[in-house]
Amino acid sequence: MIDRLFNLHGHTAWITGATRGLGKQMARCLAAAGANIVTNSRNGAEAEAVAREIALEFGVETFATAADVTDEESIAEFVSEASKTVGPIDILVNNAGVNFRRPTTEMPLAEWKRVLDINLTGPFLCSKAVLPEMVARGWGRVIHISSMLGTVGLAERGPYTASKGGLVLLTKTQALEVAHSGVTVNALCPGPFRTEMNRALLDDPVKYQEFCARLPVGRWGEMEEIEGPILFLASPSSSFVTGVCLVVDGGWTAQ
Ligand SMILES: NC(=O)c1ccc[n+]([C@@H]2O[C@H](COP(=O)([O-])OP(=O)(O)OC[C@H]3O[C@@H](n4cnc5c(N)ncnc54)[C@H](OP(=O)(O)O)[C@@H]3O)[C@@H](O)[C@H]2O)c1
Asked: Which of 33, 107, 149, 244: CA 20 to 30 A from 237?
């Protein structure tokens, strides 16, 4: 039964921005379940290095190159090349993201636009590039990596919360658009994990402890704690789950 629910052999998973952090952790997890792995970031050498590491360790096929999720042409080219190399993409994890922290009154328009472009327009473009093929094949998984901050606000996170909240509603709309087809669209909403994106908080003992104190479990997430949730949403086990937000936040949003 476990094999029927969670085996990803014969599938190809594209995890955007898997060169580090949660993306890399999720890519390794899906490879361990048997999926071929496709990834991109703005840094092609780093993407290729992660792909090589995963291919060696898990014995799966991989494809990686530089591609910016905000560039529609690069993404179309990337999807075409990846599909030719390792097979059609039937699992998409929209993970690439950025965060600039400032109050609204101090937020330059360029930073606002950059966050919206990468965190919201990027997932729109990547899902637009793979959904037709998924629908035609009658099976697919799109997982948008939103955030607990896609469901609640936090000061000094204007563009980030707006982008991640937008992603939650894009999830529901896309889920409805393809519900008839065997393709599911869900959002995964993590709480705080120790990655480069959170470097400023991790390097500030006061801010780090403030976060711990606000978390009902009293601690940040361990990187492995993203694996069960992503495997569930990417695998056959979640076939009747679509349009939901799976919040993985140590209870932050339960309060
Ligand atoms: N860490 C957390 O606590 C947390 C909590 C909730 C949600 N999340 C979400 O989880 C996702 C991953 O976060 P993380 O903490 O693992 O971040 P991270 O360590 O900073 O990694 C971000 C990844 O995205 C890539 N990327 C950024 N902009 C890109 C672009 N325009 N095109 C292609 N790739 C791009 C980065 O590579 P390059 O810079 O080389 O392009 C990198 O591989 C994000 O969507 C984030 O919002 C994280």
From this structure: 149
